[in-house]
Fold this protein.
Amino acid sequence: MKEHEFTPTIRKILREEFGANAEDLLKNSALLQYINVKTTSASRGSKARGSFGNIYAIFVLVEDYINRRFHISGNYEDAAGAKFSDLLKRQRELPFGSKLQNHALNHRLNQEFEKYFPFANAQPVLRDPETHQYWINENLLMIDTNKDSYNIAEAILRIINAYIDAKQEAFHEFINDCEKMLHISDEGSDEVNNFVAGLLRPNVDARIFEIVSFAILKANYGDQSIFWGWELEKVEKESLVLYKTGRTNANDGGIDFVMKPLGRFFQVTETLDVTKYFLDIDKVQKYPITFVVKTELKISDVELKIKKQAEAKYPVKTIVQKYMKSIEEIINIPILLERFFEVVELGNVSVVMDEIVKHSRVEFNLLE
């Protein structure tokens, strides 16, 4: 089992619950080991990608199991399952869970669990598609050691709650750091510049990357203007303004940023999967889109990867050409850094930090 900074917390909770049997339980439980894998980001700061979808699917199923006292009564095999609508509602009530979809409960958790533990011979989520009822696989909760059999349900809830607490604390620290940078951003500090640049790394949480990308691009475009008008004699100067259209990383089918008055669309992504790009292009009927990609690959390499995948998927040149022409521009991490330092040169770092603080508070539900 791979050790990381949150693993001692898992061990501590197991020792408090099971004493000397803690290590045997961790060794014998595929579910505990899976949770260990999914909590890697807990102590790596707010910028590390958080993992909540599959973790929360486990949480709500185990919570339902405990709430109905099956860890005591022991007749779970005869019980009706939990309703899907109740489970999804509960997931979205949890911290960072407001935008979670149905994927984890329906298939994603089982698929990933099987990838990590192909010989476990047990899926975490059991469901009846006709009645929309769901169960946690009790075989994964009942763990045998050399001495006895133990139910780890309550320990699992404690571990996941500890993970949530760690992530919340990290995001509070992140907001505090942002506000500190905001206060000194007018001084031209290298500390601020390095802080913002550090938020544009490939392993940064997707929501933070989207927020920082927006803040940089808004400040950068805000210093640019166009001249336009309905009549030649009435041409006016207008600054470019970038608008954020919703919550970050929301899987809501929308476009992330829109620019006025040019009407440019921007979509933020961390994948190089051509299906994602073409789906975004299709939903706006091949209207040109600028993709902001969380990668350090060269633009030419990104375009080549997308094109090769497209040619493999659509063996008709005209189809591939239409899609590729709809990619108006690709902005990668190096270009974002260039745009940021252009903003720095103009003395507008505080504009970037103000946007980061404002949208981070909204995104992470830390509004005062």
